[in-house]
């Protein structure tokens, strides 16, 4: 379980393909504190640490993860937003994030707004996806590349988020431009409500 408050960015230093799996080696400030079997969110995707050295660690993404996320497009040198799992004795500063990415979305616009930034994203839409809770609501929560954000101006297939300078500079949002594919996780509460309505 995560909160969507990104701790740092990690740099991809090696990529190894193993049949349908990809092993990613990453370097980040807290790598030396990690241990095997620990869960880390990478651009919002929960992955397990399988190997660790002094300042790097390795995680494996399987086919299902690669199909639903942007991890398969990573290259050596890319920045990835990372967050360790949430401590249950602390404040929930973001929102409840599972690290189970639902789909990807494409950035269609980046606008400067008096020192902050407004990003517009287009995501897959169908009535079936909406029935499963894959939609956004105004002032609801959404996770973009692992960052907990508030939705603005949603339509059936687009939404906007407002990014303050700190978030822009300390996450990989500064590398997102028109055409960039990002990972999105819809609000778990909306998915549960949609499922309950479907079963009632």
In angstroms, what separates the terminal alpha carbons?
Answer: 28 Å
Mean pLDDT comes to: 93
Helix content: 10-25%
**Number of beta-strand segments:** 12
Please report the number of helical segments.
4
Q: What would your notes on this structure say?
A:
By secondary structure, the protein is mainly beta. 14% of the residues lie in helices and 40% in strands. It is built from four helices and twelve strands; from the N terminus they run E-E-E-E-E-H-E-E-E-H-E-E-E-H-E-H. It has a six-stranded antiparallel beta barrel with strand order 1-2-5-4-3-6. It has a six-stranded antiparallel β-sheet with strand order 10-9-12-7-8-11. A hairpin with a 2-residue loop joins strand 7 (103-113) and strand 8 (116-123). The longest helix is centred in the C-terminal third of the chain and has 12 residues, at 188-199. The chain is globular and about 45 Å long. It starts with 7 loop residues before the first strand and ends with a helix.
